[in-house]
Amino acid sequence: MKEIPGLSDSAIRKIAGKVINDERISPEEGVLLFSGAELSLLGFLADTVRKRKNGNVVYYIRNFHIEPTNRCIYNCRFCSYRRPAGHPESWDYDQDEMLDIVRRFDKEAVAEVHIVGGVHPDHDLHFYGTLIQKIKKLRPGLHVKAFSAIELDFMIRKAGLSIAEGLKKLKEYGLNSIPGGGAEIFDEEIRKEISPDKTSSEMWLNIHETAHKLGIPSNATMLYGHIETYTNRINHLNRLRELQDRTGGFNAFIPLKYRKVNNQLSQAGEVSLIEDLRNYAVSRIFLDNIPHIKAYWPMAGKTTAQLSLLFGADDLDGTISDTTRIYSMAGSEDTAMTTGELRKLISDAGFTPVERDSLYNPVK
Ligand code: V47
Ligand code: SF4
To answer: Is residue 43 in some structural domain?
Structure first.
């Protein structure tokens, strides 16, 4: 055990006892786990929580992504993806091009489309709403999980609506759930450093809370491993836990490891595999009210994602073809995996693979 001022083995033992007895740990105890607990203990505690919540099951879903554009009015320092209009690497799909992506999956049993991209200066809620409507017409049963709170904030304001009015309208268009992107780190000082002009943390939380109250479930993310501290991470998790206590609307939490290639934050480097596993474990232990921890393997990499299953993760997203570029442009090498490969990866780690729909119902 590392010597940390103010920390003794007995403090860690007390926290471990609380986790085993299914008692909530405090933010201070969360920071102590991050800074002082051995990896093997974190793995044991996270696995205890994951088994209590999800047994021996690891979920996966057949889905695909649409990234409408990589033009963006913001300029986050960690972003490898954004390009100005006219740049050889920029794209800006019209609705027909996006519907063609949906048609590519005509013969495949996909359950979900995940739509997320840059914040386009010219597109408002009605542009994206009619897109959802057309997707639903092509493929009525497809679950549409779309638009980070950052995109929603802009498109709803552009349409001159309040957040509640905008989300209600999008639900009428066919929006089923909201992905977890754009949360980054809620600490306003760090947020200013890494994404200076972006939607505030308060607004991110407000959009998700409003969505939950309207019956739109969502996910939450945390971008970690750049310039944030353990206290910043725990404060982030704590704000999510408090919101979840009020609404119960989060399905999954997805830790996103900062990847350093081709962006303005590269000097921060990337954290180690050990740190990734510590982060999965503490997230699983601390977020006692969020049912699922998702390892997003196109970002984490296949090996880390597989190991994360032993540190609290119970969901591997997804069986994606080469439709996402957010991570490949930031240095991630793993971009495609078949259902067979995914199931093998799960069973080789000692778990039972279960195909799910977007709301975690098993798919026959
Ligand atoms: O908000 C951008 C992150 C997010 C980098 O809800 C980066 O099911 C690491 O939210 N290094 C978008 N991360 C992706 C996202 C997501 C992914 C998978 C599943 C779900 C879900 C949501 O990607 C952004 C940002 O935090 N990101 N650049 C980078 N260089
Ligand atoms: Fe835009 Fe998202 Fe990139 Fe930030 S991370 S610059 S909001 S595309």
So the answer is: no
Q: Could you give the number of structural domains in the chain?
A: 1
Q: pLDDT tens, 2-15?
A: 455 445 689 999 99
Q: Which helix (H) or strand (E) holds 49?
A: helix 39-54
118 C-beta closer than 6 A to ligand 2: yes
| Ligand 2 contacts CB of residue 45 (under 6 A) | no
By most ligand atoms within 8 Å of CB, the mutation choice from 67, 83, 190, 221 for ligand 1 is: 221
Q: Is 38 within a domain?
A: no
For 248-290, how does the pLDDT look when each residue is reduced to its tens digit (9 = 90+)?
999 999 999 999 999 999 999 999 999 999 999 999 999 999 9
pTM of the predicted model over 0.85: yes
Domain assignment of residue 238, given as a range: 57-355
Residue 264 near ligand 2, beta carbon < 6 Å: no
Q: Is residue 360 part of a domain?
A: no
How close is the Cα of 256 to the center of ligand 1, in Å? 6
CATH code of 273's domain: 3.20.20.70
